Amino acid sequence: MGKEYDMKAIFLANRSQTVDYVYSTEAKERLKGLVDIDVDTVYSQDDLEANPEKFKDVEYIFSTWSMPGGTEDKDDFARFFPNAKALFYAAGSVKYFGQHYLDKGIRLFSAFAANAIPVAEFTMAQILLANKGYFQSMRMVRRGHYDRAVEYSKSHQGNYNSKVGIIGAGMIGRKVIHLLRKFKLEFYVYDEFLPKSAIKALGAKKASLEEIFSECDVVSNHLANVPATVGIFRKEHFASMKKNTVFINTGRGAQVNEPEMLEVLRERRDICALLDVTIDEPPAEGSDFYRLDNIFLTPHIAGSQANEVERMAEYMIDEFERVLAGKTTQYEITQEKFEKMA
Predict the structure, then answer these.
(1) CA triplet 279, 259, 208: central angle to 5 degrees?
(2) Are 64 and 90 in contact (CB under 8 A)?
(3) Is omega for the bond preceding 282 within 30 degrees of 0, making it cis?
(4) Of the candidates 135, 161, 171, 187, the residue with the CA atom closest to the CA atom of residue 297
(5) Cα(148)–Cα(27) distance, rounded to whole angstroms?
(6) What is the pLDDT of residue 3?
(7) Burial of 228 by CB count in 10 Å (0-12 exposed, 13-18 middle, 19+ buried)?
């Protein structure tokens, strides 16, 4: 076999620009110091299929968004790596490709924890502003209703003794609570997988969805995107919200029954929805998502972007160092974790 096939580690992604985006020059130099890898080459699905023999000695795979994947209607690209030991995915969910690698005994690592940080920071900022009535009052001022905006803002609880509902206390939900601990807030948590004692340890009260929507000043969604959560937020939840309260969604649009939510928001102009995600992104032209004054849309920006993406690569290289040193890892996706992931 020629030297060109003697590769111990590779970058794998269908779009080389995503690797260049996530793995900085410094990150690539760090990898070169740890393993034999060509940091200037990114292999794609086409490369795998064109020359399968080329990859049979690869032991470590580094990837990010645009990873060649295998859902039920796609190929099993793990088969090209019979000697692979581990795959390091510098992004979030590995759901669309990970099972094939696990089935072949290839260890799987994800930077889901790194991606959780900017989402939690984004959510914290929105909660603090929502409790001051910022979003609606800003729009009122812009339209010349200054006095009305003042009164609207004063009708909110502020960030002292207000109630914050966290739906889903996974990695992101827990980080949101941690970031907000310095403020005098009450936390209500809905999470079917966490016992009351674990939620109490977070400094929160275990609550039902109904309690959270009807009692909290701000409701923030962080549920995993699984079939059981599709359409879980319905008309009765939004209709039960207190006056001038806010719903935040940085989870997934599919978890909201959108027609029912929009029906309530048309009738209840006092409540407000801050939506970073919707079922269709962007929503259809002319939709009430654009027309209603009490909906504020952002273009799915809560997750890692710009310099924040470099953290994901750093987490995976840190994890690679632990693997090489035989140390305990932090972000390995076991079969049990995989089954619970979004």
Answers:
(1) 85
(2) yes
(3) yes
(4) 135
(5) 51
(6) 45
(7) exposed
Strands laid side by side in the 60-63 sheet? 37-43, 9-12, 60-63, 86-89, 107-110
CA 294 to chain centre: 24
User: What token pair was written down for 170?
Assistant: 């996974």
Token code pair at residue 310? 């470099």
Condensed to tens digits (0 to 9), the pLDDT of residues 297-342 reads 999 999 999 999 999 999 999 999 999 999 999 999 999 989 877 7
This prediction has a pTM of 0.89
Query: Positive or negative CA dihedral for 114, 332, 16, 97?
Result: negative
Amino acid at 303: G
> Which backbone phi and psi does 60 adopt, to 5 degrees?
-130, 135
What's the confidence (pLDDT) of residue 93? 87
Q: How many other β-carbons are positioned within 10 Å of the β-carbon of residue 153?
A: 18
Residue 155 tokens, joined: 């009708």
The token pair at 162 is: 């207000």
Query: How would DSSP label each residue in 208-220?
Result: -HHHHHHH-SEEE
Q: Average the pLDDT over 131-157 and give the result.
A: 95
Distance CA 99, CA 321 (A): 24
pLDDT beyond 50 at 213: yes
Angle at 231 between CA 244 and CA 197, to 5 degrees: 75
* H/E stretch holding 337: helix 335-340
Query: Are the CB atoms for 160 and 136 separated by under 8 Å?
Result: no
Residue located via tokens 């939004």:
238
The DSSP secondary structure of 77-130, one letter per residue, reads: GGGG-TT--EEEESSS--TTTHHHHHHTT-EEEE-HHHHHHHHHHHHHHHHHHH
Structure tokens at 225: 């995107």
